[in-house]
Amino acid sequence: MNITIVGAGRAGTSFHLALSRAGHLTHLVHHDQVGAIADADVVLICVPDDDIALVAASLPPGGSVVAHVSGSKGLDVLAPHLRVASLHPLMTLPSGELGSRRLAGATFCVSGDDVAVALVESLRGRVIRLRDDQRTAYHATAAVAANHLVALMGHVDQLARSAGLSLEDFLPLARHALDDVAELGPERALTGAASRGDMTTIDAHLAAIPEVERATYVAMANAAFELAERRRSQTLA
Fold first, then answer.
1. Are strands 42-45 and 25-29 parallel, antiparallel or unpaired?
2. pTM of the model as a whole
3. Which residues are CB-neighbours of 69 under 8 A, at least 6 positions away?
């Protein structure tokens, strides 16, 4: 396919490289160059969410499928175009090169014109479809799975520094814990003081760590308590 990608940031560059390697003819343009777009089978908008509607409205009319890669936006932001689609990768794209490799074989949330499915298939990806009323909860889940996980590692980094250690010392532990979640599920993978209801140890932790980090620790400990309670409920059921 002949694909024009609007937006030369991390997402746009990732899709440009991945789709070109999949055999498509791709053109990468900045958002202020949309007036020159012509003869594209697909125009793929890879700009910040708040700018999608403006870019779509500025595109010249034609027979192209106009699509975006946002997880939070529906198809209404692509008006007034008749053929519209969206394909959101459930994947982090930290740079163009690394992101392009991750897009190959990724899971995509797809809606609209079937050309989106064809693009995902060309990347050997997996397609999931959602109703419009599921999209916000889907995107919130994606944010927690990626962004909040990174923020949690920032918390670990600060705690490690307070103990005279580094984040790298704790990354193998974190990786194995995530592997356990994948293999066993969150309830069975949970270990530690909160899983045992060991308030003495938790109180000692709170006394030892920097005050600025205590609220985050308490929030995560409470989440662990709830997870442990679900595990007990499942065991009794």
1. unpaired
2. 0.86
3. 11, 15, 44, 45, 46, 86, 87, 88, 89
CB neighbour list of residue 64: distance below 8 Å, 6 or more residues apart: 4, 37, 40, 41, 42, 43, 81, 83
User: Letter for the amino acid at 1?
Assistant: M
Give pLDDT tens digits for 105-149.
999 999 999 999 999 999 999 999 988 889 999 999 999 999 999
C-alpha dihedral over 111, 80, 72, 24, to 10 degrees?
50
Query: In the predicted model, what is the mean pLDDT of residues 160-182?
Result: 97
Look up the domain containing 169 and give its range: 134-236
**Of the candidates 174, 183, 176, 185, which has an alpha carbon nearest to the alpha carbon of residue 152?**
174
CB 204 within 8 A of CB 193: no
Contact predicate 53/46, CB 8 Å: no
Task: Please report, for the domain that includes residue 36, its CATH number.
Answer: 3.40.50.720
**What is the number of domains present in the chain?**
2
